[in-house]
Amino acid sequence: xxxxxxxxxxxxxxxxxxxxxxxSGKLEGGASLASARTLARGFDVSFQVVLSALxxxxxxxxxxxxxRKGVYIKSRNFTGDLREILFFALTRQGEHRPxxxxxxxxxxxxxxxxxxxxxxxxxxxxRLRIExxxxxxSGFVDCALVxxxxxxxxxIRQVCGLPYPVILIGDLPAGDYAGLSFGAVSxxxxxxxxxxxxxxxxxxxxxxxxxxxxxxxxxxxVERMEQLxxxxxxxxxxIAIGGQSNEEIRHNFxxxxxxxxxxxxxxxxxxxxxxxxxxxxxxxxxxRERYPDIELMTMDSGIGITHVKADYSELKGCLNEMIAGVxxxxxxxxxxxVGLWAEVVKGD
Length: 348
What we know:
Helix content is 36%, strand content 22%. It has 11 helices and 14 strands. The chain has a 6-stranded parallel β-sheet, with helices on one face. The protein has a 6-stranded mixed β-sheet with strand order 9-8-10-11-12-14, sandwiched between helices.
């Protein structure tokens, strides 16, 4: 006899147990579920609790009730039907999001039936709890793709508690992941540092100044640029821009950038990373006629400005393989690093 805890409703707990048995393959599609009375005896709950649990499972499209015959697990035909994918990511208002865009491109190509949930966050933990509850109630999906941006190690553990297979996209924050089952894939972002510093070295600049968002810019990329600057004897100055929201980061950047430019002398390359500023990209902030020796560049996507254009083809191919592995119940790798091809696109 399996005992249920009392912290949440018994019907919700029972529904979760049956749901996990379905996703794990322990209860196969087309098979009949034990009768309500048998389930009630097996879990030591009332008949009404079982009926309420079945209502939950039916609402999630996991079972079908056939009058006078019983309850059956819904069949899944992976060879004929589109695989159902759930994609979830946290982002900040106005943030450049090339990785999220790349995943959406993959899913919208026609190979999958998918739902994307892109939630704007300011870092509040309650928001993630609400979003995870929504994901739990998403019905029958083959797997969930979850961006690790803005997630803590504890958040990752919560995500891995979802009742279906999870593939994480991006680097994992430091933490203990023992006992968790998930797939993960991450682009080789430090390769961007090589590309940008190559460009800086070839341009013959007196100095390169990197303005980066302290909260969102990847530390490994910034550290790699600093390391390359030392080994290649390129003068690199780093300026961290603080702020809890994109609006605050942009405001602080608009205040600091002209102050730094005022003391600039000689041919200089300015680079932004993780900062979204239209006034920077169209040179309203630093007019060319006033600052002719300053070239502007961004490591994020940009229009009309010199920028880094990343190609996520290898990531998309890896995700296709991992989704197929999950759906086919084969073992999929715990973590895969994929190459990130990129180029510098010259601005106007």
